[in-house]
Automatic annotation (TrEMBL):
This is Uncharacterized protein. It comes from Bauhinia variegata.
Length: 154
């Protein structure tokens, strides 16, 4: 049986949580490249989005939950990222609700809703919640590139 004191547990928990936070510059430091945060529970979809973004020379970080995204934004600065991609269907908080909460946190970053079985109703839900645009899955370099260019011009 392994015994750990409460203080030892706190140190271990802190060490574990700190390792999971991507290392990046503070918001006040100048960025040499655009950055994006991808929020999607599906590992494959998150990896595909990150890969496409990286092919556009955008530094992309992925997280599996809205809570992880909000925590990352609180720790690193609410406007660190140039783009935030949020999936519609997530277990704990929906994509539109995530967008709404991000705006309430003061996030002014361009938010892109992403949805499988993309419909006008889903797009409207995202935009009404504070997203800047919505795109359907599967993501392609062409479709994502076009939407990102539109967001840059907004």
């Amino acid at each position: 049986m392994v015994r750990m004191s409460l203080s030892g547990f706190k140190r271990a928990a802190w060490h574990f949580s700190e390792k999971r936070v991507p290392q990046r510059k503070r918001p006040s430091e100048e960025k040499s490249r655009e950055t994006a945060l991808v929020v999607d529970e599906a590992n494959t979809c998150r990896s595909i989005a990150q890969g496409i973004l990286q092919s556009f020379d955008i530094d992309a970080v992925g997280v599996p939950t809205p809570e992880a995204a909000m925590d990352l934004l609180i720790r690193g600065g609410v406007d660190y990222y140039n783009f935030i991609l949020v999936d519609f269907h997530m277990t704990t908080i929906t994509g539109p609700e995530t967008a709404r909460r991000l705006r309430l946190m003061g996030v002014t970053t361009k938010i892109l809703g992403v949805s499988l079985n993309h419909t006008e109703e889903k797009a409207r839900a995202f935009v009404e919640a504070g997203a800047d645009a919505c795109i359907g899955k599967p993501l392609t370099a062409e479709s994502l590139g076009n939407v990102l260019q539109e967001l840059r011009n907004m």
